[in-house]
Amino acid sequence: MAFLLRRISKSLILIPINQETRLINTDSAPKDVAKAIRDSFRSSWNWDTLTTKFESVKLDGGLVERVLLELKEPIDAKRALGFFHWAAHRKSFEHGVWSYSITIHILARARLLMDARALLESVLKKTAENGSKFSVVDSLLSSYEVTASNPFVFDLLLQAYAKLRMFETGFDTALVWKIYEHMVGKRNYPNEETIKILIDALCKEGKLKKYVDMFDRIHGKRCSPSVIVNTSLVFSILEEGRVEEGLMLLRRMLQKNMVLDTIAYSLIVYAKVKQGDVCSAWEVYEEMLKRGFRANSFVYTLFMGAHCEGGRIEEAQSMMNEMENMDLKPFDESYNLLIEGCAKAGRVEASLSYLKKMVENGFIPCRSAFNEMVGKLCETGDAEQANTMFTILLDKGFLPDSITYAHLIDGYGRKGEIQEVVKLYYEMESRLLSPGALVFTSVIKSFCQCGKVEEAERYFGIMKDRSIAPSLCVYETLIANHFDKGNAERALHLKNEMELIASI
Protein backbone atom coordinates (compact mmCIF):
# COMPACT_ATOMS: atom_id res chain seq x y z
CA MET A 1 0.00 0.00 0.00
CA ALA A 2 2.74 2.46 1.00
CA PHE A 3 4.64 1.82 -2.23
CA LEU A 4 1.51 2.35 -4.28
CA LEU A 5 0.84 5.69 -2.60
CA ARG A 6 4.44 6.79 -3.22
CA ARG A 7 4.24 5.62 -6.83
CA ILE A 8 1.10 7.65 -7.41
CA SER A 9 2.57 10.71 -5.69
CA LYS A 10 5.57 10.64 -8.03
CA SER A 11 3.22 10.55 -11.00
CA LEU A 12 1.23 13.59 -9.97
CA ILE A 13 1.83 17.18 -10.93
CA LEU A 14 0.40 19.96 -8.85
CA ILE A 15 -3.20 20.68 -9.81
CA PRO A 16 -4.38 24.22 -9.06
CA ILE A 17 -7.42 24.39 -6.82
CA ASN A 18 -10.12 26.69 -8.06
CA GLN A 19 -10.97 28.89 -5.12
CA GLU A 20 -13.18 31.23 -7.05
CA THR A 21 -16.56 31.63 -5.36
CA ARG A 22 -19.64 32.47 -7.37
CA LEU A 23 -21.93 35.19 -6.00
CA ILE A 24 -24.84 36.83 -7.77
CA ASN A 25 -25.14 40.61 -7.49
CA THR A 26 -24.14 40.55 -3.83
CA ASP A 27 -22.99 44.16 -3.90
CA SER A 28 -26.43 45.33 -4.97
CA ALA A 29 -28.06 43.96 -1.81
CA PRO A 30 -27.50 46.39 1.05
CA LYS A 31 -26.01 44.60 4.02
CA ASP A 32 -28.14 46.45 6.53
CA VAL A 33 -31.39 45.32 4.85
CA ALA A 34 -30.19 41.71 4.74
CA LYS A 35 -29.21 41.84 8.41
CA ALA A 36 -32.52 43.45 9.33
CA ILE A 37 -34.42 40.61 7.65
CA ARG A 38 -32.11 38.09 9.33
CA ASP A 39 -32.73 39.61 12.76
CA SER A 40 -36.49 39.65 12.15
CA PHE A 41 -36.50 35.93 11.48
CA ARG A 42 -34.35 35.32 14.52
CA SER A 43 -36.95 37.25 16.50
CA SER A 44 -39.63 34.86 15.17
CA TRP A 45 -41.82 37.55 13.61
CA ASN A 46 -44.87 36.21 11.80
CA TRP A 47 -45.23 36.56 8.04
CA ASP A 48 -47.79 39.36 8.18
CA THR A 49 -45.51 41.48 10.36
CA LEU A 50 -42.52 40.73 8.14
CA THR A 51 -44.46 41.63 5.00
CA THR A 52 -45.64 44.92 6.51
CA LYS A 53 -42.18 45.89 7.77
CA PHE A 54 -40.39 45.06 4.49
CA GLU A 55 -43.18 46.01 2.10
CA SER A 56 -41.02 48.66 0.41
CA VAL A 57 -38.07 46.30 -0.03
CA LYS A 58 -37.84 44.79 -3.48
CA LEU A 59 -36.51 41.27 -3.36
CA ASP A 60 -34.01 40.22 -5.98
CA GLY A 61 -31.53 37.36 -6.33
CA GLY A 62 -28.70 39.26 -4.66
CA LEU A 63 -30.71 40.23 -1.56
CA VAL A 64 -32.19 36.74 -1.15
CA GLU A 65 -28.71 35.24 -1.41
CA ARG A 66 -27.34 37.69 1.18
CA VAL A 67 -30.10 36.85 3.68
CA LEU A 68 -29.70 33.10 3.18
CA LEU A 69 -25.94 33.34 3.76
CA GLU A 70 -26.59 35.37 6.92
CA LEU A 71 -28.63 32.36 8.08
CA LYS A 72 -26.32 29.60 6.81
CA GLU A 73 -25.24 28.20 10.20
CA PRO A 74 -27.08 25.03 11.38
CA ILE A 75 -28.63 26.91 14.31
CA ASP A 76 -30.37 29.22 11.81
CA ALA A 77 -31.28 26.54 9.24
CA LYS A 78 -35.02 26.48 10.05
CA ARG A 79 -35.09 30.28 9.87
CA ALA A 80 -33.38 30.11 6.46
CA LEU A 81 -36.10 27.73 5.30
CA GLY A 82 -38.76 30.05 6.71
CA PHE A 83 -37.25 32.97 4.82
CA PHE A 84 -37.09 30.91 1.62
CA HIS A 85 -40.83 30.16 1.83
CA TRP A 86 -41.72 33.72 2.85
CA ALA A 87 -39.76 35.11 -0.11
CA ALA A 88 -41.52 32.67 -2.45
CA HIS A 89 -44.87 34.26 -1.49
CA ARG A 90 -43.73 37.80 -2.24
CA LYS A 91 -45.09 39.37 -5.40
CA SER A 92 -42.79 39.82 -8.38
CA PHE A 93 -40.23 37.35 -7.03
CA GLU A 94 -39.53 33.75 -8.01
CA HIS A 95 -36.73 31.60 -6.65
CA GLY A 96 -34.07 30.56 -9.13
CA VAL A 97 -31.87 27.47 -9.02
CA TRP A 98 -29.18 29.40 -7.14
CA SER A 99 -31.35 30.31 -4.13
CA TYR A 100 -32.73 26.76 -4.08
CA SER A 101 -29.16 25.42 -4.02
CA ILE A 102 -28.01 27.65 -1.16
CA THR A 103 -31.06 26.70 0.91
CA ILE A 104 -30.58 22.98 0.18
CA HIS A 105 -26.95 23.19 1.30
CA ILE A 106 -27.97 24.93 4.53
CA LEU A 107 -30.62 22.29 5.27
CA ALA A 108 -28.33 19.37 4.43
CA ARG A 109 -25.57 20.73 6.65
CA ALA A 110 -28.07 21.01 9.51
CA ARG A 111 -29.33 17.47 8.77
CA LEU A 112 -32.85 18.68 8.07
CA LEU A 113 -33.11 15.90 5.56
CA MET A 114 -36.84 15.84 4.83
CA ASP A 115 -36.82 19.55 4.06
CA ALA A 116 -33.68 19.27 1.93
CA ARG A 117 -35.18 16.36 -0.04
CA ALA A 118 -38.42 18.28 -0.59
CA LEU A 119 -36.59 21.30 -2.04
CA LEU A 120 -34.35 19.06 -4.17
CA GLU A 121 -37.31 17.27 -5.69
CA SER A 122 -39.07 20.59 -6.27
CA VAL A 123 -36.14 22.22 -8.09
CA LEU A 124 -35.41 19.06 -10.11
CA LYS A 125 -38.97 18.95 -11.39
CA LYS A 126 -38.81 22.66 -12.13
CA THR A 127 -35.59 22.44 -14.15
CA ALA A 128 -36.62 19.22 -15.91
CA GLU A 129 -39.53 21.10 -17.47
CA ASN A 130 -37.28 23.68 -19.11
CA GLY A 131 -34.57 21.21 -20.15
CA SER A 132 -31.84 22.58 -17.84
CA LYS A 133 -30.65 19.14 -16.76
CA PHE A 134 -27.22 20.21 -15.52
CA SER A 135 -28.25 23.46 -13.83
CA VAL A 136 -28.99 21.97 -10.40
CA VAL A 137 -25.71 20.05 -10.26
CA ASP A 138 -23.68 23.01 -11.48
CA SER A 139 -25.39 25.33 -9.01
CA LEU A 140 -24.89 22.96 -6.08
CA LEU A 141 -21.22 22.58 -6.99
CA SER A 142 -20.76 26.35 -7.33
CA SER A 143 -22.50 27.19 -4.05
CA TYR A 144 -20.83 24.41 -2.06
CA GLU A 145 -17.92 26.41 -0.65
CA VAL A 146 -19.80 29.62 0.11
CA THR A 147 -22.30 27.72 2.29
CA ALA A 148 -19.63 25.63 4.05
CA SER A 149 -21.77 22.66 3.06
CA ASN A 150 -21.49 18.94 3.68
CA PRO A 151 -20.77 16.47 0.82
CA PHE A 152 -23.78 14.47 2.06
CA VAL A 153 -25.89 16.82 -0.06
CA PHE A 154 -24.76 14.95 -3.18
CA ASP A 155 -25.99 11.65 -1.74
CA LEU A 156 -29.37 13.33 -1.34
CA LEU A 157 -29.19 14.64 -4.90
CA LEU A 158 -28.54 11.19 -6.40
CA GLN A 159 -31.35 9.72 -4.33
CA ALA A 160 -33.72 12.47 -5.48
CA TYR A 161 -32.86 11.78 -9.12
CA ALA A 162 -33.50 8.07 -8.55
CA LYS A 163 -36.80 8.71 -6.74
CA LEU A 164 -38.06 10.92 -9.57
CA ARG A 165 -36.94 8.22 -12.06
CA MET A 166 -35.00 10.79 -14.07
CA PHE A 167 -32.30 8.26 -14.98
CA GLU A 168 -34.92 5.86 -16.34
CA THR A 169 -36.36 8.53 -18.63
CA GLY A 170 -33.06 9.12 -20.43
CA PHE A 171 -31.45 11.58 -18.02
CA ASP A 172 -27.76 11.91 -18.80
CA THR A 173 -25.91 9.33 -16.69
CA ALA A 174 -22.72 11.38 -17.06
CA LEU A 175 -24.34 13.55 -14.44
CA VAL A 176 -24.27 10.70 -11.92
CA TRP A 177 -20.51 10.30 -12.30
CA LYS A 178 -19.95 14.04 -12.13
CA ILE A 179 -21.73 14.10 -8.77
CA TYR A 180 -19.94 11.01 -7.49
CA GLU A 181 -16.52 12.33 -8.50
CA HIS A 182 -17.22 15.50 -6.56
CA MET A 183 -18.41 13.49 -3.53
CA VAL A 184 -15.20 11.46 -3.39
CA GLY A 185 -13.16 14.59 -4.04
CA LYS A 186 -14.77 16.08 -0.91
CA ARG A 187 -14.04 12.86 1.03
CA ASN A 188 -17.69 11.86 1.21
CA TYR A 189 -18.01 8.16 0.43
CA PRO A 190 -21.19 6.53 -0.90
CA ASN A 191 -23.61 4.52 1.18
CA GLU A 192 -25.30 1.33 -0.01
CA GLU A 193 -28.20 3.18 -1.62
CA THR A 194 -25.86 5.43 -3.60
CA ILE A 195 -23.82 2.39 -4.73
CA LYS A 196 -27.01 0.86 -6.14
CA ILE A 197 -27.75 4.08 -8.05
CA LEU A 198 -24.22 4.11 -9.49
CA ILE A 199 -24.44 0.44 -10.54
CA ASP A 200 -27.75 1.30 -12.19
CA ALA A 201 -26.03 4.16 -14.04
CA LEU A 202 -23.39 1.72 -15.35
CA CYS A 203 -26.20 -0.52 -16.61
CA LYS A 204 -27.92 2.40 -18.34
CA GLU A 205 -24.64 3.34 -20.06
CA GLY A 206 -24.13 -0.27 -21.15
CA LYS A 207 -20.74 -0.29 -19.41
CA LEU A 208 -21.34 -2.64 -16.45
CA LYS A 209 -20.28 -5.81 -18.28
CA LYS A 210 -17.22 -4.07 -19.73
CA TYR A 211 -15.99 -3.03 -16.28
CA VAL A 212 -16.93 -6.27 -14.51
CA ASP A 213 -15.05 -8.29 -17.16
CA MET A 214 -12.06 -5.95 -16.94
CA PHE A 215 -11.79 -6.20 -13.16
CA ASP A 216 -12.29 -9.98 -13.29
CA ARG A 217 -9.27 -10.19 -15.63
CA ILE A 218 -7.18 -8.07 -13.28
CA HIS A 219 -8.25 -9.52 -9.94
CA GLY A 220 -9.04 -13.06 -11.03
CA LYS A 221 -12.44 -13.16 -9.37
CA ARG A 222 -15.61 -11.12 -9.01
CA CYS A 223 -15.29 -7.81 -7.17
CA SER A 224 -17.84 -6.27 -4.81
CA PRO A 225 -20.27 -3.62 -6.15
CA SER A 226 -18.46 -0.86 -4.25
CA VAL A 227 -15.07 -1.83 -5.76
CA ILE A 228 -16.65 -1.96 -9.23
CA VAL A 229 -18.13 1.53 -8.79
CA ASN A 230 -14.98 3.09 -7.34
CA THR A 231 -12.64 1.56 -9.91
CA SER A 232 -14.99 2.42 -12.78
CA LEU A 233 -14.83 6.07 -11.76
CA VAL A 234 -11.01 6.12 -11.70
CA PHE A 235 -10.75 4.24 -15.00
CA SER A 236 -13.22 6.54 -16.76
CA ILE A 237 -11.25 9.61 -15.62
CA LEU A 238 -7.99 8.07 -16.87
CA GLU A 239 -9.70 7.07 -20.13
CA GLU A 240 -10.73 10.71 -20.66
CA GLY A 241 -7.06 11.69 -20.47
CA ARG A 242 -7.34 13.34 -17.04
CA VAL A 243 -4.44 11.26 -15.77
CA GLU A 244 -3.30 13.42 -12.85
CA GLU A 245 -6.86 13.78 -11.53
CA GLY A 246 -7.42 10.04 -11.87
CA LEU A 247 -4.23 9.17 -10.00
CA MET A 248 -5.03 11.65 -7.24
CA LEU A 249 -8.46 10.08 -6.83
CA LEU A 250 -6.90 6.60 -6.86
CA ARG A 251 -4.53 7.64 -4.08
CA ARG A 252 -7.44 8.87 -1.98
CA MET A 253 -9.34 5.64 -2.53
CA LEU A 254 -6.29 3.52 -1.63
CA GLN A 255 -5.97 5.37 1.67
CA LYS A 256 -9.58 4.40 2.44
CA ASN A 257 -9.20 0.80 1.14
CA MET A 258 -11.85 1.51 -1.50
CA VAL A 259 -9.95 -0.26 -4.30
CA LEU A 260 -7.90 -3.46 -4.35
CA ASP A 261 -4.10 -3.24 -4.60
CA THR A 262 -3.98 -5.53 -7.66
CA ILE A 263 -6.41 -3.27 -9.48
CA ALA A 264 -4.58 -0.13 -8.34
CA TYR A 265 -1.27 -1.41 -9.76
CA SER A 266 -2.94 -2.20 -13.08
CA LEU A 267 -4.57 1.23 -13.24
CA ILE A 268 -1.22 2.92 -12.61
CA VAL A 269 0.26 0.90 -15.48
CA TYR A 270 -2.69 2.01 -17.64
CA ALA A 271 -2.09 5.65 -16.66
CA LYS A 272 1.63 5.42 -17.53
CA VAL A 273 0.91 3.82 -20.88
CA LYS A 274 -1.72 6.48 -21.52
CA GLN A 275 0.98 9.12 -20.93
CA GLY A 276 3.29 7.33 -23.37
CA ASP A 277 5.75 6.39 -20.62
CA VAL A 278 6.07 2.66 -21.35
CA CYS A 279 9.37 2.30 -19.46
CA SER A 280 7.87 3.67 -16.26
CA ALA A 281 4.80 1.48 -16.77
CA TRP A 282 7.05 -1.56 -17.00
CA GLU A 283 8.80 -0.57 -13.75
CA VAL A 284 5.42 -0.46 -11.99
CA TYR A 285 4.55 -3.86 -13.45
CA GLU A 286 7.84 -5.38 -12.24
CA GLU A 287 7.29 -3.91 -8.78
CA MET A 288 3.81 -5.41 -8.80
CA LEU A 289 5.29 -8.88 -9.47
CA LYS A 290 7.99 -8.45 -6.79
CA ARG A 291 5.29 -7.72 -4.23
CA GLY A 292 3.60 -11.02 -4.94
CA PHE A 293 0.80 -9.96 -7.24
CA ARG A 294 0.09 -12.08 -10.31
CA ALA A 295 0.40 -10.85 -13.87
CA ASN A 296 -2.91 -10.38 -15.65
CA SER A 297 -4.14 -10.24 -19.23
CA PHE A 298 -5.28 -6.61 -18.85
CA VAL A 299 -1.72 -5.38 -18.19
CA TYR A 300 -0.24 -7.62 -20.89
CA THR A 301 -2.72 -6.25 -23.41
CA LEU A 302 -1.78 -2.69 -22.44
CA PHE A 303 1.85 -3.40 -23.29
CA MET A 304 0.85 -5.18 -26.51
CA GLY A 305 -1.10 -2.08 -27.52
CA ALA A 306 1.88 0.17 -26.80
CA HIS A 307 4.17 -2.08 -28.88
CA CYS A 308 1.70 -2.19 -31.79
CA GLU A 309 1.32 1.58 -31.74
CA GLY A 310 5.09 1.95 -31.82
CA GLY A 311 5.40 -0.48 -34.73
CA ARG A 312 7.12 -3.11 -32.55
CA ILE A 313 5.00 -6.01 -33.80
CA GLU A 314 7.48 -8.76 -32.86
CA GLU A 315 7.48 -7.58 -29.23
CA ALA A 316 3.67 -7.54 -29.21
CA GLN A 317 3.53 -11.06 -30.61
CA SER A 318 6.10 -12.20 -28.07
CA MET A 319 3.95 -10.84 -25.26
CA MET A 320 0.92 -12.69 -26.62
CA ASN A 321 2.93 -15.95 -26.61
CA GLU A 322 4.19 -15.27 -23.10
CA MET A 323 0.68 -14.51 -21.88
CA GLU A 324 -0.66 -17.78 -23.31
CA ASN A 325 2.26 -19.75 -21.81
CA MET A 326 1.32 -18.33 -18.40
CA ASP A 327 -2.28 -19.56 -18.87
CA LEU A 328 -3.53 -15.98 -18.99
CA LYS A 329 -6.50 -15.81 -21.34
CA PRO A 330 -6.31 -13.21 -24.10
CA PHE A 331 -9.54 -11.26 -24.57
CA ASP A 332 -11.07 -9.51 -27.57
CA GLU A 333 -8.86 -6.42 -27.33
CA SER A 334 -5.71 -8.62 -27.20
CA TYR A 335 -6.61 -10.19 -30.54
CA ASN A 336 -7.87 -6.97 -32.12
CA LEU A 337 -4.55 -5.25 -31.46
CA LEU A 338 -2.53 -7.99 -33.14
CA ILE A 339 -4.93 -8.46 -36.07
CA GLU A 340 -4.75 -4.76 -36.87
CA GLY A 341 -1.07 -4.35 -35.97
CA CYS A 342 0.11 -7.30 -38.08
CA ALA A 343 -2.04 -6.19 -41.03
CA LYS A 344 -0.60 -2.66 -40.93
CA ALA A 345 2.91 -4.13 -40.79
CA GLY A 346 2.19 -6.24 -43.89
CA ARG A 347 2.10 -9.51 -41.93
CA VAL A 348 -1.17 -10.62 -43.47
CA GLU A 349 -0.82 -14.34 -42.71
CA ALA A 350 -0.16 -13.61 -39.03
CA SER A 351 -3.12 -11.23 -38.95
CA LEU A 352 -5.38 -13.90 -40.46
CA SER A 353 -4.05 -16.50 -38.02
CA TYR A 354 -4.92 -14.31 -35.01
CA LEU A 355 -8.39 -13.72 -36.45
CA LYS A 356 -9.03 -17.45 -36.79
CA LYS A 357 -7.79 -18.08 -33.26
CA MET A 358 -9.97 -15.24 -31.99
CA VAL A 359 -13.08 -16.73 -33.59
CA GLU A 360 -12.21 -20.19 -32.22
CA ASN A 361 -12.13 -18.69 -28.73
CA GLY A 362 -15.59 -17.20 -29.12
CA PHE A 363 -14.74 -13.56 -29.86
CA ILE A 364 -15.79 -11.30 -32.73
CA PRO A 365 -13.27 -8.73 -33.99
CA CYS A 366 -13.93 -5.02 -33.94
CA ARG A 367 -14.65 -3.43 -37.31
CA SER A 368 -11.43 -1.41 -37.49
CA ALA A 369 -9.24 -4.49 -36.97
CA PHE A 370 -11.21 -6.65 -39.41
CA ASN A 371 -11.35 -3.92 -42.04
CA GLU A 372 -7.59 -3.41 -41.84
CA MET A 373 -6.98 -7.12 -42.39
CA VAL A 374 -9.57 -7.38 -45.21
CA GLY A 375 -8.00 -4.39 -46.94
CA LYS A 376 -4.54 -5.99 -46.87
CA LEU A 377 -5.85 -9.40 -48.03
CA CYS A 378 -7.63 -7.76 -50.97
CA GLU A 379 -4.54 -5.72 -51.86
CA THR A 380 -2.51 -8.94 -52.05
CA GLY A 381 -5.08 -10.63 -54.29
CA ASP A 382 -6.75 -12.86 -51.69
CA ALA A 383 -10.29 -11.46 -51.79
CA GLU A 384 -11.74 -15.01 -51.56
CA GLN A 385 -10.08 -15.62 -48.17
CA ALA A 386 -11.29 -12.23 -46.94
CA ASN A 387 -14.83 -12.97 -48.11
CA THR A 388 -14.77 -16.43 -46.52
CA MET A 389 -13.89 -14.97 -43.11
CA PHE A 390 -16.46 -12.24 -43.67
CA THR A 391 -19.21 -14.85 -44.21
CA ILE A 392 -18.18 -16.74 -41.07
CA LEU A 393 -18.27 -13.55 -39.01
CA LEU A 394 -21.65 -12.44 -40.38
CA ASP A 395 -23.14 -15.71 -39.11
CA LYS A 396 -21.70 -14.90 -35.67
CA GLY A 397 -23.21 -11.42 -35.51
CA PHE A 398 -20.45 -9.23 -36.94
CA LEU A 399 -21.77 -5.85 -38.13
CA PRO A 400 -19.91 -4.61 -41.21
CA ASP A 401 -19.78 -1.04 -42.46
CA SER A 402 -19.27 0.57 -45.86
CA ILE A 403 -15.49 0.31 -45.51
CA THR A 404 -15.73 -3.48 -45.18
CA TYR A 405 -17.67 -3.70 -48.44
CA ALA A 406 -15.46 -1.16 -50.20
CA HIS A 407 -12.37 -3.30 -49.50
CA LEU A 408 -14.07 -6.50 -50.72
CA ILE A 409 -15.45 -4.82 -53.85
CA ASP A 410 -12.02 -3.39 -54.62
CA GLY A 411 -10.44 -6.82 -54.09
CA TYR A 412 -12.78 -8.59 -56.49
CA GLY A 413 -12.51 -5.68 -58.95
CA ARG A 414 -8.74 -6.13 -59.05
CA LYS A 415 -9.32 -9.77 -60.07
CA GLY A 416 -11.92 -8.84 -62.68
CA GLU A 417 -14.70 -10.77 -60.90
CA ILE A 418 -17.40 -8.26 -61.68
CA GLN A 419 -20.31 -10.50 -60.66
CA GLU A 420 -18.95 -10.61 -57.10
CA VAL A 421 -18.63 -6.80 -57.18
CA VAL A 422 -22.30 -6.38 -58.11
CA LYS A 423 -23.38 -9.03 -55.61
CA LEU A 424 -21.55 -7.26 -52.76
CA TYR A 425 -22.99 -3.89 -53.77
CA TYR A 426 -26.58 -5.15 -53.59
CA GLU A 427 -25.89 -7.17 -50.45
CA MET A 428 -24.74 -3.96 -48.83
CA GLU A 429 -27.91 -2.14 -49.85
CA SER A 430 -30.05 -5.01 -48.58
CA ARG A 431 -28.43 -4.49 -45.17
CA LEU A 432 -29.54 -0.84 -45.36
CA LEU A 433 -25.94 0.34 -45.48
CA SER A 434 -25.63 3.41 -47.68
CA PRO A 435 -22.76 3.12 -50.14
CA GLY A 436 -20.51 6.12 -49.74
CA ALA A 437 -17.84 7.64 -51.95
CA LEU A 438 -15.39 4.84 -51.17
CA VAL A 439 -17.78 2.08 -52.29
CA PHE A 440 -18.88 3.89 -55.47
CA THR A 441 -15.23 4.57 -56.33
CA SER A 442 -14.42 0.86 -55.97
CA VAL A 443 -17.45 -0.19 -58.05
CA ILE A 444 -16.73 2.30 -60.85
CA LYS A 445 -13.03 1.35 -60.96
CA SER A 446 -13.98 -2.35 -61.06
CA PHE A 447 -16.26 -1.91 -64.08
CA CYS A 448 -13.65 0.23 -65.85
CA GLN A 449 -10.96 -2.41 -65.25
CA CYS A 450 -13.24 -4.93 -66.95
CA GLY A 451 -13.83 -2.56 -69.88
CA LYS A 452 -17.50 -2.03 -68.98
CA VAL A 453 -17.50 1.75 -69.01
CA GLU A 454 -21.27 1.96 -69.71
CA GLU A 455 -21.99 0.12 -66.42
CA ALA A 456 -19.45 2.34 -64.67
CA GLU A 457 -21.34 5.38 -66.00
CA ARG A 458 -24.59 4.00 -64.57
CA TYR A 459 -23.13 3.85 -61.06
CA PHE A 460 -21.52 7.24 -61.64
CA GLY A 461 -25.04 8.59 -62.27
CA ILE A 462 -26.42 6.89 -59.14
CA MET A 463 -23.58 8.39 -57.14
CA LYS A 464 -24.37 11.92 -58.33
CA ASP A 465 -28.15 11.43 -57.88
CA ARG A 466 -27.45 10.65 -54.22
CA SER A 467 -25.42 13.87 -53.87
CA ILE A 468 -22.17 11.99 -53.33
CA ALA A 469 -19.33 14.00 -54.85
CA PRO A 470 -17.15 11.89 -57.19
CA SER A 471 -13.44 12.04 -56.45
CA LEU A 472 -10.74 13.03 -58.94
CA CYS A 473 -9.83 9.34 -59.08
CA VAL A 474 -13.35 8.51 -60.36
CA TYR A 475 -13.21 11.21 -63.02
CA GLU A 476 -9.71 10.23 -64.16
CA THR A 477 -10.68 6.55 -64.38
CA LEU A 478 -13.78 7.30 -66.47
CA ILE A 479 -11.94 9.76 -68.71
CA ALA A 480 -9.14 7.27 -69.42
CA ASN A 481 -11.64 4.51 -70.25
CA HIS A 482 -13.70 6.70 -72.57
CA PHE A 483 -10.53 7.69 -74.46
CA ASP A 484 -9.57 3.99 -74.69
CA LYS A 485 -13.01 3.25 -76.14
CA GLY A 486 -12.65 6.06 -78.66
CA ASN A 487 -15.37 8.17 -77.01
CA ALA A 488 -13.40 11.43 -76.93
CA GLU A 489 -16.52 13.62 -76.70
CA ARG A 490 -17.65 12.06 -73.40
CA ALA A 491 -14.09 12.03 -72.12
CA LEU A 492 -13.65 15.77 -72.78
CA HIS A 493 -17.05 16.51 -71.21
CA LEU A 494 -15.99 14.72 -68.01
CA LYS A 495 -12.61 16.44 -68.09
CA ASN A 496 -14.28 19.88 -68.27
CA GLU A 497 -16.67 18.91 -65.48
CA MET A 498 -13.77 17.74 -63.32
CA GLU A 499 -11.80 20.95 -63.90
CA LEU A 500 -14.87 23.07 -63.11
CA ILE A 501 -15.43 21.27 -59.81
CA ALA A 502 -11.74 21.53 -58.93
CA SER A 503 -11.81 25.31 -59.51
CA ILE A 504 -14.75 25.92 -57.15
From TrEMBL:
Pfam family, one: PPR_2
Superkingdom of the organism of origin: Eukaryota
Gene3D superfamilies: Tetratricopeptide repeat domain (1.25.40.10)
Keyword Repeat attributed: yes
Keyword Zinc belongs to the record: no
Transmembrane feature ranges: none
Residue stretches of each PPR repeat: 191-225, 261-295, 296-330, 331-365, 401-435, 436-470
Keywords carried by this UniProt record: Repeat
Family named by the database record: Belongs to the PPR family. P subfamily.
Name under which the protein is recorded: Pentacotripeptide-repeat region of PRORP domain-containing protein
Source organism (scientific name): Prunus armeniaca (Apricot)
